[in-house]
TrEMBL record:
Keyword Transcription among record annotations: no
Subcellular location as annotated: Cell membrane
Gene name of the record: LOC114042282
Organism per entry: Vombatus ursinus (Common wombat)
Protein name: Olfactory receptor
UniProt superkingdom: Eukaryota
A Pfam family the protein falls into: 7tm_4
Bilayer topology: Multi-pass membrane protein
Sorted UniProt keywords: Cell membrane, G-protein coupled receptor, Membrane, Olfaction, Receptor, Sensory transduction, Transducer, Transmembrane, Transmembrane helix
Family: Belongs to the G-protein coupled receptor 1 family.
Amino acid sequence: MDGKNDTAVTYFMLVGLSEHPRAQAIFFCLLLMSYLVTLLGNTLILFLIHYDSHLHTPMYFFLSNLSFLDICYTSATVPQTIINCLVRIPIISLGQCLAQMCAGLYLGVVECLLLAVMAYDRCIAIGDPLRYSVRMSAQLCAQLAGASWISAFLLTVVPVLTMPLEFCGQHIINHFSCELLAILKLACNDLRIYELLIMVTSSLTLLAPFAFILASYGRILGAVLKMRSAEGRKKAFSTCSSHLTVVIIFYGTAISMYMMPQDKASRDRDKIISMLYGVVTPMLNPLIYSLRNKDVKGALQKLLGEKNVP
């Protein structure tokens, strides 16, 4: 296991925190709690948007996409990680590991693109409010959301399937899940093409959308400063602050993971960062959007009020 040989790899061992039982027990409790909060919070957001007709707007259409995405994103890796905390030697088959890697990579890229689409929606809503309903039609919203899901598939899953990895010796993955960068460290392919592909894909799915979001918020800031009404400025900042908070957390951690130089010392750092954008962000999304959003809180109060009526 310590060196390469000619034996084909059929399984991997996920180290995680298995060498530290006490830390793993704490990690198990935190991870389980985070996953339950993610499921409950995002499911509640989906239900409220479907339930309340006042939330049938482009902004909440994209938010419902984000909530559905976060449920899928965490479910792709977190349940397996929770199970691994309960066994002494966590083992995953090669096929399951590659499937988990593709799913996590694909859904992560969808989130990158979807956050950029949400920034565009806010830019139109604040910069051109009189024509907002015309410019952000239901058809265009569906096309933008669909383009995010389809583009992410073409940028992630298709390249992985067309350039399969080969493993010929090492079994141990120093990670909680089958993360792309952790998997590549064990591959015996010529990794130069993969490293180039990661740089190109990261530029298209991280740097380009992030730059687009910054440009959108630059236009939003300009539009807000031109508003004469203090109440209007406050409302505009309120509707954008939730999205901007999510963007900073998600893009900040993802860029530091995939755009920073990799070395041996970065392995433990990568495990922590992957938990931030793969577990913490999906858990915080419904909390951020519900606690900082009057419409969502109003829909929840309306639901609870009607449920309490005899």
